[in-house]
Amino acid sequence: MDRSIELGFANIDLQRRERTGIAEVIYGAGKDADQIAEIARQMYEHGETHILITRVEGEKAAYVNRKLSEVDIISNIYDDAHIIVTGGNHKPDGIGRIAVVTGGTSDIPVAEEAARTAEFLGNEVDRIYDVGVAGLHRLMAKVDIIRNATVVIAIAGMEGALASVVGGLVSAPVIAVPTSVGYGANLGGLSALLSMINSCASGVSVVNIDNGFGAGYQASLINHTGKTEK
Amino acid sequence: MDRSIELGFANIDLQRRERTGIAEVIYGAGKDADQIAEIARQMYEHGETHILITRVEGEKAAYVNRKLSEVDIISNIYDDAHIIVTGGNHKPDGIGRIAVVTGGTSDIPVAEEAARTAEFLGNEVDRIYDVGVAGLHRLMAKVDIIRNATVVIAIAGMEGALASVVGGLVSAPVIAVPTSVGYGANLGGLSALLSMINSCASGVSVVNIDNGFGAGYQASLINHTGKTEK
Amino acid sequence: MDRSIELGFANIDLQRRERTGIAEVIYGAGKDADQIAEIARQMYEHGETHILITRVEGEKAAYVNRKLSEVDIISNIYDDAHIIVTGGNHKPDGIGRIAVVTGGTSDIPVAEEAARTAEFLGNEVDRIYDVGVAGLHRLMAKVDIIRNATVVIAIAGMEGALASVVGGLVSAPVIAVPTSVGYGANLGGLSALLSMINSCASGVSVVNIDNGFGAGYQASLINHTGKTEK
Amino acid sequence: MDRSIELGFANIDLQRRERTGIAEVIYGAGKDADQIAEIARQMYEHGETHILITRVEGEKAAYVNRKLSEVDIISNIYDDAHIIVTGGNHKPDGIGRIAVVTGGTSDIPVAEEAARTAEFLGNEVDRIYDVGVAGLHRLMAKVDIIRNATVVIAIAGMEGALASVVGGLVSAPVIAVPTSVGYGANLGGLSALLSMINSCASGVSVVNIDNGFGAGYQASLINHTGKTEK
Amino acid sequence: MDRSIELGFANIDLQRRERTGIAEVIYGAGKDADQIAEIARQMYEHGETHILITRVEGEKAAYVNRKLSEVDIISNIYDDAHIIVTGGNHKPDGIGRIAVVTGGTSDIPVAEEAARTAEFLGNEVDRIYDVGVAGLHRLMAKVDIIRNATVVIAIAGMEGALASVVGGLVSAPVIAVPTSVGYGANLGGLSALLSMINSCASGVSVVNIDNGFGAGYQASLINHTGKTEK
Amino acid sequence: MDRSIELGFANIDLQRRERTGIAEVIYGAGKDADQIAEIARQMYEHGETHILITRVEGEKAAYVNRKLSEVDIISNIYDDAHIIVTGGNHKPDGIGRIAVVTGGTSDIPVAEEAARTAEFLGNEVDRIYDVGVAGLHRLMAKVDIIRNATVVIAIAGMEGALASVVGGLVSAPVIAVPTSVGYGANLGGLSALLSMINSCASGVSVVNIDNGFGAGYQASLINHTGKTEK
Amino acid sequence: MDRSIELGFANIDLQRRERTGIAEVIYGAGKDADQIAEIARQMYEHGETHILITRVEGEKAAYVNRKLSEVDIISNIYDDAHIIVTGGNHKPDGIGRIAVVTGGTSDIPVAEEAARTAEFLGNEVDRIYDVGVAGLHRLMAKVDIIRNATVVIAIAGMEGALASVVGGLVSAPVIAVPTSVGYGANLGGLSALLSMINSCASGVSVVNIDNGFGAGYQASLINHTGKTEK
Amino acid sequence: MDRSIELGFANIDLQRRERTGIAEVIYGAGKDADQIAEIARQMYEHGETHILITRVEGEKAAYVNRKLSEVDIISNIYDDAHIIVTGGNHKPDGIGRIAVVTGGTSDIPVAEEAARTAEFLGNEVDRIYDVGVAGLHRLMAKVDIIRNATVVIAIAGMEGALASVVGGLVSAPVIAVPTSVGYGANLGGLSALLSMINSCASGVSVVNIDNGFGAGYQASLINHTGKTEK
Hints:
Chain A is α/β, with parallel strands linked by helices. The first copy, chain A, has two domains: about 5-85, no CATH class; about 95-225, Rossmann fold, CATH 3.40.50. The first copy, chain A, contains nine helices and eleven strands.
């Protein structure tokens, strides 16, 4: 049986939870505020109380928030992550903790998207920011926290070397996120992406440039290995 | 304390097991048969009985095999995977099973590299080959096996669409491996890589083109989440 | 005999209809509103009553519309498609129907450009939107409508996998349209383009990124195979 | 019900005919001669008498041919097209004729792959070779034959301008095939591909570099518009 | 002896005329209006009465114009060409005429930059605009004018096929100018550039994307072959 | 009237001389020796006594040469240029001389293709080889010869800087030829091509990588400006 | 012992001086004015009196300047270089002088970033601007100053030929900086970068596009060879 | 006065020593063995006793060696470096030592080219091989040797992260050499090149892919800062 809601502009996948264990996430980019609010409302009315909306910020986020409160749906805006959450995070029930590591200060918005996503999906997160490889001792000072994680998300722009260095330090899988941070020959993040894909460290896989959400999502899957309903 | 063996041409990392939980793997490409055999012998003498050698085939693999047997090290050649294993696979102790899925027949060597790597590292593997998206019913006929896995490795060349389709069908993390299979605008696998990195399905991350080893390695890490010694 | 109108800035091809069966279409991008209105007026005065203007929107479209009404030419603006039509659509006289399928909500403007173009050129169109491959059941729920078409237009951004999946499901030719929807390594639509060009499904050909018009136009030609005047 | 034959290395799609109207085609590249012969034999035993095998040539083609004749399957080798056909071509039943046009002499192998594919699938084909745009009068001398076609396949390497020029001359849909013919900045055919994708002529769509088969296949679909069983 | 004027921000090359036969041209992009005016003034004071300033438009051009008139230098602004000329054009003394041909209306600014540059340098110019290859008869209607030229400048965006078609029609050298006109896979003009560089027509050479000036300059050199002082 | 010879595999353009002033040139790459000899024979029989065949070398060139002598056509092989000429060069009747300049020793085959082509077409040529910009004084020692030319062909691989330096030294038009000489990030000549296209010197235009023929051909056109029959 | 200051958004590396001889530099892009001021203040309080802040300009630079003066830290803004310096430059103690050479006027901001960085780090700098290779005599007029330097920084956009020409003229190491100056096929500076990386001159190495700071920094290291504390 | 020897195929720059302090080096790729031997002989006869020949190996190197001994020039072949040296190395007279560091075993040929070049030019070299960032402790075990160098050459393929990590550990300038070691998305070394160009560490500059010679040459210049004759 097909269980989806057709809104004309969108086709909401209600079967997603039973198919993949997680309800549909609303990707806010390329949708206007009214569309986002309407999708969220429809999901809520069909029984999804915890909803994650990504790539919304500033005025647009505030508007969605107001729209939702008009129909009595309580939502939080996480400005730094460009994320809205309704119904709060899922209760942490992962195998271990997730470490989110960044090379620089400018990578933090992507890191927060990853961290908030993972927290929403029921994970505990450690944030280790601005520990790029040009100052290894900053990274080494935090290596115990990183090694304690069951999954590590390594986020870096420029040359993206962080992924390889972290990959060589830990026994957990590493999800690498290239960012568009940098200039010139960074090619909008493509250089970091290529760097991470060619990592000499085993155990590193890569998601799209600036895709904090994707990293947080997969990290959560990994941190629930064997636990996700099938 | 530094625990590595210096051979002049190579610097074997004996600390690797305690740092990452898995002994160093010998990447056979770019090393000659004598170098490979010598590295394996040294590792063996320093207590590594289970050794994985990748990217060796044909004459070169046979030579390494002979060299090792001369010093009483028993090794198996897996031709289809371009892999040599000494001391047999590690005992399966993963959380669940790993599914290795390919789009076509030509992707099988990469798939076998992934499958053999995962088996070496202590995992049980299901192989589902030649189920590309142009004939969805072939994939759907195997969907139960795929959904039963705790990690899925999706391997495809050409347009690499398999990763997204599989990603939308399962609740487990998907490791996507683009292959160099195809011609013309496949750009040696880069088109499939870009396709997989841009996947509209959540829970998909990507390794290098033809990197079956890397996918099998990370899949094993995931299938041992919370179990790898730290 | 040369039958074209020279306006200095443009050289209107009046012979086009007899050469290709369809009057010249006005591509609005890179022309200002006055130029567009003047070309349309000239075509109208030379006997073209049905005129299609693409890539005009908002203020510019309204201005063209007003200019045309000043010389008693009635035109409709299709905002969602960035299209203006004078004289209404041609009467539907195709062999069958055209299906326009999109992967996501953000692909809709391109889809509407394709659908409106096809309708203008005398075709009946079915719209099936937001049925991306990450939720296959949404697509499968519509497969009968899609299989009923004589031509299918498959529109998707990100990894563009929709084209291959649809290509494997139908017996009609598929025109694939990559869109610039996505971010990071989508390379402004180039990743989807490469993906579609490398499609493992037979019967798929590709037009330029975001080229809804081109897809609608070719789909119309196909839906009139053997009927177009020569 | 799943109707496919599993050979371990391949998964033959017997449902394909009813799903898409055409039996599976064997893509010979990346398969060895024994695999190809075995797939053909299995298809034949399951009732497919007309079988098309592409991308086989020289020794390999001869070997397949011998293997098939050992099990009493008669096959023809078309050397120039790198194609083997068993059971002869399907009876021509298209709406009209298909024109295959090339820019140069070196494009002929791709053109023959297209032409033989179309003939196999039940179409009559006109071949117009070596009429590149640097000598327009050669093309114009054949324009009547080209205009008489219901579909045109335009094949060119180097700058690929043929597609646009042909597209402007005819009222039929044009399938453009970039070839890898050329050198230097032709980027292995990518320059011609980009050129064709950016064609200023309406009604042109594009398949992969050197993909004569894909063009012949889609041209056949178009030439049977409204006739393919669904 | 070094004959240049140092302004700190610029180093004006007064020797250029004797070395290359033509005085330095002021490239306005990347210089502010005051810098441009000052360079022009210095050149004027050192005896250069005919000065060409490119890539200036709107407000900036008007400002330069005013600044020059304040020091009694008369200059004309050619808005359509983004060019300012002081002292009028050089007297036409070329071998023949230069034809400037464009594919579309949107290419006209680049064409005007070429045409005005050539006129400034002492050439007579024929403008043939909007005669793209998708409507060959428009081009053929003007072929006599084009064939009458001693040099042809062919300007086109999108797939840039105009260069090859024109190259095949004339006995004069053709300077091809790719433009950034187009969208999607036009890659900002790179597709047209690649197309033109790979031209199957002999006698075609290429300048940078949108470089009307460069084309007009070289065309002038060619039209003065054997006449330029050395 | 169409004046071309159809050979099935080729369509010889006999009208080319009257249209462009120069008979068709046989591009030997991608044609086998028999095809080349047959085309040459046909042209000869239709009155073309001076024939240029490019991109033939070694065994293949010798075979063509023998084949032609069998039908009493005398041809010379220029090994260094990969060129065969029948009937000798055209009598020099250019406006001035053509200078062919290379950056290094490895660029010489391309340079000879250019020089021999120009000589065939009736030009006198000066060869100035191995004067790359890393040793400017070598170039400056020859500057008088270069400045004496009416056209300069600048040929270089690696970074292709020669084109700009030469462009700044002369008053004649410069045809730049990037070569595939170099390694690593030379991208098979693409880096030199980009460098030359972006030349800061005016009066430089560019042909395809390693396209000595194209440069020689256009240089000849320029050296005959106003003289080529129309 | 780890000596770094954690600010949440940044992790200041106080050990940097003893590890690399130079205190951390604040890269202003991607940080807001408050973050920059706070980092500078913290460094100051921990004993760093000479602080370099790059990539700050206009309003943002003024704000940082005011914020610092509020806590009694005196800073100078170098507008042309987009740099702020606190505590003045380090005393010049280099082996020799550093020459900063540019191809054009538009390269000056990058040059000033390099020059100011070098001066801050204790070097004397000669500025030689707008001496591009299209007018070699301008460069040759300054060759004595350039040859007198112990390190040369060569800065150019467009085709970046300056690096090779300078590299061939001097016995000192050359740091090449490609700039994004240019248009069209300059690819945002990538063409100049490729050109410089492929330089035929020995002794040239390259930094990122527009990376004046990186060039100035490395030039200073070189000018202090054997002097930097270890 | 021009002091160069013209051999027709080559133009030997005898002035190079006085201009740049170092005699011309013979780049063996793209020259045949006889050309190389002849150039070396000519240089020797004109007083250059120490000659460096790069990119020669195996049979070709042996042939050059024999040819030189026939004219009583003694030369050594360094197989691992693909280098021939006549007259031995220059006496070490650098400021300090040069460290050559590689990520892996496969990078050694490039490293040896760098090391032998530096030794030839009068430097003492430390070799630290196979210390890639995936096993940081191997690098840290050698950090004292590396920190002791006045210049560091960091050589790595794949993701090239070594350059940034080393750059953060030392106070000396780092010359980074990307290698073509790797596969798939390593793009023949381009990924490592981009990674190194985008290095987040200051003090790193980059030479061409596999350009060990260039790195050794520049390192020598740096190690002789202030000492090279001018």
